[in-house]
């Protein structure tokens, strides 16, 4: 049975946000391609979703930090015209403060959080543009807006993803292709398992359950939001931020330095 809603390819789909997106999309009538490193977890999730929803669910085991695996997923996105949605969710945290970080781990994080998300979007975007429909959903983080509040590498990768998403929205224009950035706050997922119980130190009122986060993100998509921040009570605060940023634009590039620098 072919989905009339199109197929969604979800990365990092073996658990947490990715697995929850997969379940929600299957229940909304989408067939799926699930991508993650853990083939066993993907197969178990795929079997459950097939049984519960009747949707077609393919499994594509891949480590997106490895060039050959990434290339296989890119090729699937280019060739499989049934895929109309990309959920760019796969990502990892960094290695703490830059002063003590392992440069190899930092590079691995950048390859996954930045390089793979960019290449996957680039693989599907031309085809979606030609069709005049479809969507790319990039899972960023509120750390994109909080420089200095978290380790520098991770926040920077998420700031890149937010900036990339907004630029892609401008490129898509009124083509019919939807581009959404999702900026979760602290969410109870397995990503915290690598942080030695630090989630236990976070006040409970700051931690969102993954089901609620994904449901809010999908509701934001349905409402036409370009940037969805599930925890933000007043969407007008984001609009104020965007307006303040836009107000800088006319003065960001002039032929001469600003008078405060005292140059002749």
TrEMBL record:
Highest taxon of the lineage: Bacteria
Enzyme class: oxidoreductase
A GO term, aspect molecular function: oxidoreductase activity
Keyword annotations: Oxidoreductase
Domain Ketoreductase, first and last residues per copy: 6-198
Similarity comment text for this entry: Belongs to the short-chain dehydrogenases/reductases (SDR) family.
Name this protein carries in UniProt: Putative oxidoreductase
Organism: Edaphosphingomonas haloaromaticamans
């Amino acid at each position: 049975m072919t989905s009339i809603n199109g197929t969604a390819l979800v990365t990092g789909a073996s658990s947490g946000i990715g697995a929850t997106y997969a379940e929600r999309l299957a229940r909304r009538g989408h067939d799926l391609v699930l991508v993650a490193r853990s083939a066993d977890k993907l197969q178990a999730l795929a079997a459950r979703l097939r049984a519960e929803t009747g949707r077609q669910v393919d499994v594509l085991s891949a480590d997106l930090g490895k060039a050959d695996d990434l290339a296989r997923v890119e090729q699937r996105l280019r060739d499989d015209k049934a895929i109309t949605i990309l959920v760019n969710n796969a990502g990892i945290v960094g290695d703490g403060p830059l002063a003590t970080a392992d440069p190899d781990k930092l590079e691995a994080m950048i390859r996954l959080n930045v390089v793979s998300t960019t290449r996957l979007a680039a693989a599907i975007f031309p085809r979606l543009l030609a069709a005049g429909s479809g969507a790319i959903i990039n899972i960023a983080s509120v750390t994109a807006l909080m420089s200095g509040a978290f380790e520098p590498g991770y926040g920077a990768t998420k700031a890149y993803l937010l900036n990339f998403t907004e630029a892609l929205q401008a490129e898509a224009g009124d083509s019919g292709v939807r581009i959404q950035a999702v900026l979760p706050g602290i969410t109870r997922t397995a990503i915290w398992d690598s942080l030695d119980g630090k989630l236990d130190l976070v006040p409970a009122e700051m931690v969102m359950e993954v089901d609620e986060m994904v449901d809010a993100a999908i509701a934001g998509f349905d409402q036409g939001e370009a940037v969805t921040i599930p925890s933000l009570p007043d969407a007008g605060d984001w609009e104020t931020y965007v307006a303040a940023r836009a107000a800088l634009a006319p003065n960001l590039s002039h032929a001469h330095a600003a008078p405060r620098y005292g140059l002749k």
